[in-house]
C-alpha cells in the first residue's frame, strides 16, 4: 500500500509594474483676443468633466499644467510649447509575420514620435503564478541608401492592462519617407504567455515658436499616469472678449454713473448682450466694422436696451439676477443676419433700418407717442387681423446651458395650465441663445407664451403726414369707435381756454361713476393726458388742465374707466399710392413684462404629485475593486420601464473635505457606469434619470468609502439550541464589506491576537456556530474585510439559549425519534385486565438504511382497573446523521436513589410529577430561571426579571449596580464617584467657600478701657483637620501710647497665638498687620466652634482693630482639608 502526502500551494501573483506615462500636450484656441481669461484659474479648467482644482484649491486631477495667453497683439509664446505637433492614428496590431509601414509626408517635420505598446504582458508558470514577460520591437526608417534600423526596443515587466510608450526619431530623411515597425519576438501560441503588441499612432513634430497674435490660447499638458489614463476631454469656464462698453458703465456692479452718457467707450468684459452685439457689428476684423461702421449703428438705442437687460429680477431661488445675460461661444461661420437675429431674440427686440442707421426696437413698456382715431385714418376704418390658434403656444420647452448640470444642456418646461385646459396642449421647442440661467430660460419661455396669448391682434390703416410723427417701435394708442361701440376718439372743433372746455366733433357718453381721461396733443406735438371734470353738453367736456397749443381739428382720445386702453406697437411704415403712409402695428400689453419678471419660484421637488418629473432611479449600488494600483468603481442601478429613451446623469463628488468637489460628471445611456477614483477617501455618487424631454428626476445618492473598513460597531446575537447566530453591523451599510469570524472558548487578553490564539471559522455577512454548551460563555472575534484591507477585531461574548423548558421539548423529540426511545415508551400489545408482564430485550441490528444499532432494555407493565402502569430501563447506541449516539433512558412514575448501606431509607433524590427533590447537593454551577428560599414569606427570592429580595445580605466582595435607592447607609472606607453627585446637603471633607452673609463692621473695632479677649468671628468645627483661607487682613494700632496685641485662635479648650505686636513707647511702632491665610484648624468635632479673638493688654489705652478685605471686594472665606495640596513649585 502506498501513501502520498500532498502539500497545498497558494499561487502568488506578481503585481503590475508597467504603467503608461505619456504627456498630452495640446494647444486650444479659445477666441479672438484679447479676452478676460479663466474665471478662477485652474478651478475653471475641466478635464473629462472634473475641475483640475476644487473650490478649496485641492487637486482633483493630478499631473495637469497650463499656460494661458489672453490674445494681445504682442503676447509671448506659450511656455513649454516650442514645437507644433500633428498626430495621426494607426491602431494596428504588430505581429512577427507582418510589419506595419506608414509614409510620412509632412514637409516641415523635424522629429517623429511613435506611440507603441502592449495589450498585456505577463506569463504564468506551472504553479499558476504570474511572472514578468518580455517582447522586442524594431523601428526602421527608409533612408536614401535603404532600410535602416533606428531603434531596438525591449519591453520587460508585468501588466494586465494596455501599456503604451513613445519612441522619438531624430535622424529623418527628407520627406516623404517610410517608417516601419516590426515585431522581433515570435507571436505567443500559449495561453500562459500574453504579449500582444500594437502601433497606436505617430506624431509629426515641427520645431517652431508661435505667438498667436490676437488669439486667446491655452496650452495644456496632462500626465496620463496621474490622470488615470483616460481620454482627455477639455472644457474651460472663460470670461470672453474685452468689448466696448460705455465709459460711465461698471460691468461688475452693472451700474451707470451719472444721469447721461456722453457717448464715449472703454474696453471691459461684460455679459450684457447689447454691448456684445455692438462689438460684432462694429469690429473691423471679425465683425461688420468694415461694412456697417460705427456711425451706422444706433448706440443710443443699444444703451437703453443694455440698461433694460441689467435690471435685477427674481432668479426663482429667492435671490436676484440681471434680467438678460449673454454667455455665448461663437465657433462657426454663420450668416450675419442669423447672428444678429439670435442676439435680438435674446434682448426681446428686432433690428430695423430707419433710413439712416441700424436701430433696434425692443418689446418693453414705454410711453404713448401718438394717438389715432377714426377721424385720423383714411376712410375712417381700422383693419384688424388675428393670429391663428395654432400659433398661440401654451407650453414651451426652453433648452439652455445649465451650470448645475456641469455646463451641459438642460430643458426648462414653461406651461400655461389654464390655456392648456381650454385649448389643449400646443408645445413649442426653442433654444435660448447665450442662456446659462434657469431663471432666464423660464422668463424666455414665459415671454413667448404671454406674447402669443395676449398680443393676438395686428392693425393696418392709412394716414397722411401724421405717419411721420413716429418711427417703428413707438407705442400708438388706437381709439376705434367702431371697436369700442361708443365714441372714444375724434377731432376738436373749438377750445375755450378760460373755461378749460373743449367742443368735440361728436357727442360722448361719460360713466356715472369713475373718472374719465382725455388724451390730447400739446403744442410740442407730445401726447398729454387731462382728467375730465365736467360734461356740460353732449359734445362738450371740461378738463382739469388744458395744455397750451391745443388747436382746433387736433386729435382727442377718451379713456373710460370701464374700458381698457388699446395700445399697439408700430412695426412698419410704408408709403401708400395716394401719398399717405400705411401703418402696421402689433398689439401691445405693457403688463406683460411684470407678469414675466415675477417669473416663478423654483423648487427641487414638484408642487404636485402628478408625474411631471421622471421617476428616480432605484437600487443604486456600487462595488469597489483594486486593479493595477488604481481604484475601480462599478455603479449599477435600475430605471422604470415607463421611461422612453431614458438616460442617466452620473456625478461623483468628494465627501471628506467638506467642499463637495466634483470628481466625475457624465451622462450615460445604460444603467451602469464604471469610473476610477483618484485616491482613498469618502465619495458620494449621485444618479438622476433624464427623460426624452430633458427633465431630470430627483437625485438618488449613495456613499462610497474607499478605505479599509471600520470595525463592526455592533454584533446582534440570536441564541438557539446549542448554537448562536452572529450578525455584525457597521455605522454605514456597505454591500462590498464582508466579515471574518474567529472563535475562542476562553476570552483573549487582547482581541487583536485572534489570528494566533483563536480558530478561524470563515467569511460572510453572518455566521451560525453550533456545538456550543449552554450556560457557558463563548467568545467570538469579528473583523470587517473589503478589497482595500481589514479592520481591527471586535470581541463579542455569546451563549446558546438557556431556557430549560425549550431544551426539554427539544430532547423529547430527540428521544422519541431514536429506536431505544420508541420501543421503550410504546405499550406492549394484548395486555389484559389484571395482567402483568416483564420483557427484556437485548439485540444488535442494521436498519433499512444500513446503520448499525445496539439495544438492551427491561420493561415491566401492569393493567389494573383499566389503569396502565409501566416502568422501564434501557441503554443503546445508534448511528445518526450527526454520528454515533449513546443514551440511557428510564421510564417510571417515580425515580428515587436510596443508600441502603447507611441504614436510612430516606432517599437522597426523588423524581416525581416532573419535579426533582434533593436532600443535599453540592453543585459547582447552577443556572436557574428563579430561586426562592423556604419560609412564608421567603427570606430570599430571585425572580426572572432580575429582582432580588432579601431580608439581610452580608456582601464582602464587589457590588455593581446601575441604579437604585440606598437608605441610611454608612460607607466606612473610600468611595469614588465618577459621575455627577446630586445631594441636598453634604457635610464633611469638602472645599467650603463663603462670600455672602458675613457681617463685619464697616469701620474699626474700637475698645476703650476694655482689655482682655475680644471675639472677631466664629468658625464651625469638624471631625478632621482643615485649613482656613480668607481675603481679610487684621490690623491693630494704638498711636499715642504703648499697647500689646495678641491675635489668638481658640479651638475647643486649646489656645493658639497667631500673631503678637507691641506698639512701643508712645505708639511709635507700627502695631499689627496680619493676613488671615493658611490658618490650621484642628479637629474639634462638629458640636464645637473655632473662635478668632484679639487680646488687648492695657485696658487704659484706646485701641483700634480692623478686619476687612481689600478695597472693592467682599469678605470671602474658604475651608478645606489639610494636606490636599494640588499645586507644587518647580525650579525656574
UniProtKB/TrEMBL annotation:
PANTHER family: FELS-1 PROPHAGE HOST SPECIFICITY PROTEIN-RELATED, GIFSY-2 PROPHAGE HOST SPECIFICITY PROTEIN J, PHAGE LAMBDA. Residues 708-806 form the Fibronectin type-III domain. Pfam families: FNIII-A_GpJ (PF24801), Ig_J (PF24421), Ig_J_second (PF24489), Phage-tail_3 (PF13550), Phage_Tail_Tip (PF09327). It comes from the Bacteria. This is DUF1983 domain-containing protein. It comes from Pantoea brenneri.
